[in-house]
Design goal:
Number of helices of chain A: 5
Number of strands of chain A: 0
Helix content of chain A: 55-70%
Order of helices and strands of chain A: HHHHH
Largest interface: A-B, 42 and 42 residues
Shape of chain A: elongated
Strand content of chain A: under 5%
Oligomer: homodimer
Largest sheet of chain A: none
Structural class of chain A: mainly alpha
Distance between the termini of chain A: 14 Å
Chain lengths: 98, 98
DNA sequence: ACTTTAGTAACCCTATGGGTTACACTTGGA
DNA sequence: TCCAAGTGTAACCCATAGGGTTACTAAAGT
């Protein structure tokens, strides 16, 4: 089952900012051009105002030599936590299996 | 890195249909009501014409006593494969890290 | 003081999830 | 045979969200 967390999981933008941009001394404009996306699109993600889509995950994986799953998993964990804590319709669902 | 696959990964709808609905002898209408979503919404997913969202993953996890990650991972793998094979803009991205 | 880099707002377009209603098809039981 | 139930889906409506461009503002660095 979902491990209970008290605080929001890390947004992929935070990882990008701290573990990539700052560490490698890269700017948003620079990376956005390398990714072949608009500066706005990348800026939104880095500042945690946008989500990493499958297409963006593929771009990030090529740029930083990682797996696309790394970024999608971060995004998924983030999204799931926020959905679980902001909507409650799913709590009304009753089990069909034991 | 992404493991090369020749064929599309399984859509969560296929798992639902074969491993849950058919096995447990459940109908779409029945499950849709249990999930508290419209028949159409659930039908689209089962017939692989709709995606499992975080909210739906939570509903499915309660109904079938699984983790929401199970469903989201299936969807993610499916989406990633299709994005990688249908768009190619990401291939133009050049590495910023070795 | 000028240039570069960033954050962001405004606006447009497109895609998609989710709901309701309605129609056509299939199947099983009365 | 006839009807009800279950199912797939189309037509519509609404809201959200990603992505692009342009432009303005602010903060650094040269």
């Amino acid at each position: 089952m979902t491990r209970a967390r008290h605080r929001s999981p890390t947004h992929p933008g935070g990882i990008l900012k701290r573990h990539y941009l700052e560490t490698m001394n890269l700017g948003i404009t620079e990376v956005a051009e390398a990714l072949r996306v608009s500066r706005k699109t990348f800026s939104k993600i880095v500042n945690e105002r946008g989500a990493v889509t499958p297409d963006m995950a593929l771009r990030l994986s090529k740029a930083f030599n990682t797996t696309p799953e790394l970024w999608l998993n971060l995004q998924q964990t983030y999204d799931l936590w926020h959905t679980a804590h902001s909507s409650k319709g799913w709590m009304a669902v009753h089990a069909l299996a034991a």
